[in-house]
Design a protein that fits this description.
This protein is about 45% helix and about 0% strand. The protein has about 220 residues and is mainly alpha-helical. Helix 4 packs across helix 5.
């Protein structure tokens, strides 16, 4: 008795089922990632050493660039090395138990495993240097870190949130002299438009093209 379905038809059905299963798994993972992104909003991230941005930035007035040395030039802002921390703490509070891991890092030449607060999926490309060069201030994405005892995610960093800025960037730009000031107000509309013009931004079509962020 001949088979009801040909081998080719059976293979097609199997492939279709596998594709549907793959799509279902991808959909579940996407929803989990989106839910976790929102759950983490406003939740302090535990660190090996409880570094307080509120103390260092808000109280002591340390500029973002002192620790995040490559934020103006590279895709990644850069995490502070042990040497950067010791530029102060080789003298200040050097015998505090809280900083024992810092001195251990210096002695063993092993970097401190800081936990990332703002994590993007691997399929998203983001360049800090480009955004800073165009006038996007730290506070726009990272919030008032000068008021955070432990850093937390202030914005969802999801695609629609990013696209809202890419579609209309002018209201989100600041003068280059105020990009690293936590309390600098947004400029009035006329100045914002002038800043956008001076920044020589790409066209809206280019800024919202998939290939701009997904490479």
């Amino acid at each position: 008795m001949s088979a009801v379905f040909s081998p080719r038809a059976v293979l097609a059905v199997r492939l279709a089922v596998l594709a549907l299963l793959g799509l279902a798994v991808a959909t579940v993972l996407l929803f989990v990632w989106r839910a976790r992104a929102y759950e983490q909003l406003g939740e302090p991230i535990a660190q090996p050493i409880p570094f307080s941005h509120k103390h260092h930035v808000g109280d002591d007035g340390i500029d973002c660039r002192y620790c995040h040395t490559t934020v103006e030039t590279d895709a990644h802002a850069g995490l502070p090395s042990t040497a950067v921390c010791l530029s102060c703490h080789s003298q200040l509070y050097r015998d505090q138990a809280l900083l024992a891991l810092l001195h251990q890092s210096a002695a063993t030449n092993q970097p401190i495993a800081w936990q990332r607060v703002h994590v993007l999926p691997d399929f998203v490309y983001f360049n800090h240097g480009v955004h800073v060069a165009k006038g996007v201030a730290c506070v726009e994405c990272h919030g008032r870190v000068d008021q955070m005892p432990l850093a937390w995610r202030a914005q969802p960093l999801q695609m629609q949130w990013c696209l809202a800025c890419h579609r209309d960037p002018a209201p989100h730009l600041r003068p280059t002299t105020q990009e690293f000031a936590m309390d600098a107000p947004l400029p009035p509309p006329q100045q914002a438009t002038a800043l956008a013009r001076a920044a020589h931004l790409e066209s809206r079509r280019r800024m919202t093209d998939c290939s701009t962020c997904h490479r």
